[in-house]
Specification:
With 211 residues, the protein is mostly helical. Helices cover 82% and strands 0% of the residues. α1 crosses α4 (74-98), α6 runs antiparallel to α8 and α7 (158-166) runs antiparallel to α8.
Length: 211
């Protein structure tokens, strides 16, 4: 670790950056889809079904399938991490928007708010605590999936893990694997703490107390 500290630090930053950027993209995609389907029981059930089925797919296999059309490198990593990140967020977004009190929505519409403004300023803030819970679950899950993305030569700490496994029994092979695994765990804890802080900044005190 002393000899390769610069390499470990750079790989950790790449890993963290990949997960955070994919999480942001996943939140946008999941919230947009949830906004389109939550009013319909059939579409909501379909979204939840897709989420449940998607979570059963082996991330390693999905990455392998993407190598042919997307090649190696960052692109397949972004696609896979964003896909898996969006699944728990989508489910929670549908639940959160569905649970918003209809009377509050009608009151907002009654004072002249447009549908978009009602969604952005009333429904989304009320559903945000539930959505953020999904984001936290998703963040922990995809932190490990981002390591698997190193199979497609993606950025991050997965390179240490695969490098060590490929020469298991050789010099420093176990140290390489342990470095990658411990690094992923530490980054997951840091990201979760940051998301807790984000919740305190973005969820109003009244909603927190009511929850």
């Amino acid at each position: 670790m002393v000899d390769r500290w610069d390499q470990i630090w750079f790989a950790s930053w790449q890993h963290f950056s990949l997960v955070v950027q994919c999480l942001v993209l996943a939140v946008i995609v999941a919230v947009v889809i949830a906004a389109l389907v939550y009013r319909s029981e059939r579409l909501s059930a379909l979204a939840n079904g897709v989420s449940a089925i998607g979570l059963t797919l082996p991330s390693f296999a999905v990455i392998g399938l993407l190598i042919a059309p997307a090649g190696f490198g960052v692109l397949p990593s972004v696609i896979v991490v964003t896909f898996f990140a969006a699944l728990p967020i989508l489910r929670n977004a549908v639940v959160g928007l569905t649970e918003v009190d209809g009377a509050i929505v009608e009151s907002a519409r009654g004072i002249g708010m447009s549908p978009f403004r009602t969604f952005a300023t009333v429904q989304l803030p009320l559903a945000w605590p539930v959505i953020l819970t999904g984001v936290r679950v998703s963040a922990q899950m995809v932190m490990g999936i981002a390591a698997v993305a190193a199979y497609a030569l993606g950025p991050g700490l997965g390179g240490f893990i695969f490098s060590g496994l490929s020469r298991l029994g050789g010099a420093n092979s176990l140290a390489s694997v342990v470095t990658g695994v411990v690094g992923v765990v530490v980054l997951a804890l840091i990201l979760d703490l940051l998301l807790v802080g984000l919740g305190r900044l973005t969820i109003s005190r009244g909603i927190r107390v009511r929850s």
